Amino acid sequence: MSQYLVRRLRVVIVTALLAMTITLPATIGAAGAHAAAAFTLFDNTNYNNDNLPANYGLTPSAVVYDSWNITCQNTSTYACALPPQGDFQAKIRSVDATAPTSSPLTLDFENIDITSGTPVAQATNDCQAWQTLISWARAVIPAAQPLGNYSYDWSQSSEGTSCNTTLHSEAGGLTFFAPSMYTYTDDLTGSDWTSWTTRVTQSVANDNAIAPSQPIYPYVLTQWDDVSGNDYSSMPASDWSQEIDYLQTTTQGAIIWSKPGELGSTSCGWIGATHNFMTALTGTGGSTGSLTADVQFPNTCTLTRGQTTAVPVTITNNGTTTSTATTLTVSGSTGITGTASPSAVPALAAGGTWSTTVDMTVGSNANLGDTVITYTLAGEGVQNRTALIQDPDLALNRTATQSSTAGSDTASLAVDGLTHNNGSTATNDSETNTDAQAWWQVDLGSSQSIGGIDLYAGANSATNFYLIVSNSASPAVQTTPLPPNQWIQTTPGTWVMNVYNDTFRYPVWKGDTDPRGMVGSTDVPVQQTGRYVRVQLAGTGQLSLDQVDVTPGLPDGAKLLSTDVVANGGFETGSPAPWTGAGTTSIAANTDLGGNYALQLSGTGSTVEQIVTVKPNTTYTLSGYAKVSASGNQVEIGVKNYGGSQAAAPITATGWTQGTVTFTTGASTTTADIFCYHDIGSGTANCDDITAYPAS
Predict the structure, then answer these.
(1) pLDDT attached to residue 53
(2) Is 363 exposed, middle or buried (0-12, 13-18, 19+ CB in 10 A)?
């Protein structure tokens, strides 16, 4: 599974409250058959366990992707490359916190899937690796947490079936199945439908034979998968409804996943079908009278923050008698209003329809997240409809330039509005040659108030780069190191940020062992004013960009720059202050994580601490990078004296590894003690880029 996130779009549940003086049974289409079914649809449509705020009424789920490239060899002795246990369990904790503890947690380690082509000796090693990883996961998640592994279990060899039987039967093992049920055609009719349903039937039979009491939650895709000429376009409503209808009759649930384009130009159908399905499944949200509304959002189902959009609305009388005349009114949450013209709904004969236009205004202060719009007539129940709220892209189709051009990879490809890939190829990316301080720049046409910049990496992911916002068409090339992740005014009208860690980054799902820089989607809060936006490498290399979005609003879920409570967490001042130390501590030159300096601790017991100001009853996320000089050493990044028990992330890796701790301050607590502590071993340890942000 790929996971490249289209961050700029957010899904919003739109509620139509339709009413009249008579009430008849609801008419909500074919999905009505689901109302009594014991079936759950889970949400993994946001790729990174960051479930969409309004997620169509689905139940959140979580998945741990193989960022370590776990593999086993084809040998008669055990030979598998596993991550350090501490690193693995820290990732499990972090991911598991993104969904309720009753929701499924899926392990997606496809390199150790045992398929029909896996050699017998390697299958034995793969199975032992699965047992180890599952036991590590079980040690840090709630005992009742559903745990499964993403796999193509319907096509496994006898060795794979034997291993799966072990994993699902032993104490502390897997407790649900998560087979892949993607659609490898461009329709669901005839032989294509027969092929897909046969795969479902085979998978269910295989899983029931292994563990008949365990639920089956197949992964399903809202798009056609790998079909030439129709790559990952969204399914029409009829096909998507047909698929989830069938799954409800054969499985206990499904996990909805997506590739790039999930919220693309053809997404209205599957989103509306999902809402109808969930409305009937839960028995809530449907009209209780005879009137229903067809709310037709234009284009890609999107409404744009800061703009007014004309939305066609059709009211239909699904009853058997004439309805009563009434008035349509529209209201919304903060920053969202609607005016119907005309608004007087006439009496409608049975089966009759009436249409109007609603001017929906999404104010600049409206959230991209969970927003409700209410269409009201007197006396009827709720009917769900969905819109996608997005920020306008100030850079779209604007003039772009770059320091040089590699082949035909022009600068304009990064502002064409098309997000193409996950950073693994250069197709349709802008790309420079290998330049000293290679740069790319877009002219917004005039000086603009910029809230955020979203960077989608191309084939060459930058590990240390500068963002520059300026009113000058030729800002100075930045060569002087700057404090990390802060906007610095270098000259009047020019602001620069040195970005080199993952504070603002949403990591890709697989093979992403580089903790720094721009990989996948990097969403940087700006809150500056300028006409030109430039991306510049700190050193020499090729700069490749898939897309650059410049928006007046902050990026979704942005970590505001002013909220990091740790001072000098990158040690870029060249001094440890305001950290205080014990044992042997120093500031060392640092060339492999980014910036110029890092903290170094020598010998057991060496530590630095910083007392930071916090708010009472507030949850914070403490994050930092550390490494040790050799096996047998351990360093901890942690927090104490915050109104709760001491908490720390242990790191034993010799390469830079991120540690994350979540803590909630006490009712009257106003300070906390952040520390980096070399607690095991006689070698050295390094810490860097330590931050602590409030959760909200």
Answers:
(1) 38
(2) middle
Full DSSP string of 140-155: TS-TT--EEEEE-GGG
Number of residues that this document lists for the chain: 696
Segment 319-322 long-range contacts (CB within 8 Å, at least 24 positions apart):
319/22, 319/24, 319/289, 319/290, 319/291, 319/350, 320/24, 320/290, 320/350, 321/22, 321/290, 321/350, 322/347, 322/348, 322/349, 322/350
Q: What does the alpha-carbon distance between residue 270 and residue 371 come to, in Å, rounded to a whole number?
A: 20
pLDDT digits (tens, 9 = 90+) for 61-117: 888 988 788 999 999 999 999 999 988 998 898 888 878 888 999 999 999 999 888
| Nearby residues of 286 by Cβ (< 8 Å), 6 or more positions away | 26, 28, 279, 280, 381, 382, 383, 384
320: Cβ contacts below 8 Å, ≥ 6 apart: 24, 290, 350
Where does 543-651 have alpha helices with state H?
none
- Contacts of 194 by beta carbon, 8 Å cutoff, 6+ apart: none
The secondary element (H helix, E strand) that includes residue 640 is: strand 634-640
Closest CA to 591 of 464, 480, 465: 464
The predicted structure's pLDDT at residue 629 = 93
Rounded Cα distance, 80 and 427, in Å: 34
Residue that has been written with the tokens 């920053």 in this structure: 335
* Predicted confidence band of residue 33 (pLDDT cuts 50, 70, 90): very low
Q: Nearest CA to 83 among 519, 652, 690?
A: 652
pLDDT at residue 460, rounded to an integer:
63
Question: What pLDDT is stored for residue 503 in this prediction?
Answer: 61
**538, pLDDT greater than 80:** yes
The stretch 577-599 carries a mean pLDDT of 83
Local confidence band at 264 (pLDDT 50, 70, 90 cut-offs): low
Beta bridge partners, 150, equal: 178
Q: In this structure, what token pair is assigned to residue 283?
A: 């028995």
